[in-house]
Amino acid sequence: MKTAGGSDEAKRRAGERAAAAVEDGFVVGLGTGSTTAHAIRAIGRAVDDGLEIRGIPTSFQSRQLALEVGVPLTDLDAVDGVDLAIDGADQVVDDRDAAAFGALIKGGGAAHAREKLVDTAADRFVVVADPSKLTDRLERSVPVAVLPDAHSVVADRIRALDGEPTLRDAERKDGPVVTDNGNLVLDCAFGRIDDPDELATRLSGIPGVVEHGLFVGVADATYIGTDDGVEVRRY
Ligand SMILES: O=C(CO)[C@H](O)[C@H](O)COP(=O)(O)O
């Protein structure tokens, strides 16, 4: 599992703090990545101790981990709503004076399409992160999941928005990353993103784009694990 950036101890603190917010009877969105994995394991331990919840995984990875640790699973079609979603992020705007305070870039694990579906369906969406994810302005490449047939035309449209798209290569497989839903991923560098909301609208308007990794106005809070505690930002 990818663990780049930030200490695993900080990730564990953030994940376990979020898991502690899960209440009996909850339907919980289970995000993807190394930080959320700590939350899923903690939820699994709570289920062992009698907590009754159902989880909705956002990826093959989170589904497998949930099954391994005994978290009962369901899906969006089978529930009336999602009480809480817990998910990681690649960058989080942590400038209280910025209009985009709390905006995220996600998709480092190429799971952002299902993550956005589940995270936005939740009554409450909590981001779990370590301090390496915090930034004044978003500036990492934005993952854009595209229909396979559309990757070159979408890449042209990204260039027209002054972005530099790179088709994400797979590791230990020839060719590109193929997402859990059979899409390809363009990692799109835009430099510093001053208005993520506007960029998000433009990206969503490109035919062939399945979903992009800008999450603007979606998170309710971020739990930031540090080496000696957890800081909470509320939006
Ligand atoms: O968006 C994601 C997957 O698509 C992850 O949540 C994001 O990449 C953070 O992962 P990690 O907690 O391993 O740093």
UniProtKB/TrEMBL annotation:
Instruction: Please name the catalytic residues of this protein.
Output: E115
Q: Which Pfam families match?
A: Rib_5-P_isom_A
Pathway noted in the entry: Carbohydrate degradation; pentose phosphate pathway; D-ribose 5-phosphate from D-ribulose 5-phosphate (non-oxidative stage): step 1/1
Keyword Iron assigned to the entry: answer is no
**EC annotation?**
5.3.1.6
- List GO molecular-function terms, semicolon-separated: ribose-5-phosphate isomerase activity
At which positions is substrate bound? T32, G33, S34, T35, D87, G88, A89, D90, K106, G107, G108, G109, K133
Reaction it catalyzes: aldehydo-D-ribose 5-phosphate = D-ribulose 5-phosphate
Q: Name one GO cellular component term.
A: cytosol
HAMAP family annotated for this entry? Rib_5P_isom_A (MF_00170)
Query: According to its UniProt record, which protein family does this protein belong to?
Result: Belongs to the ribose 5-phosphate isomerase family.
Q: Under which name does UniProt file this protein?
A: Ribose-5-phosphate isomerase A
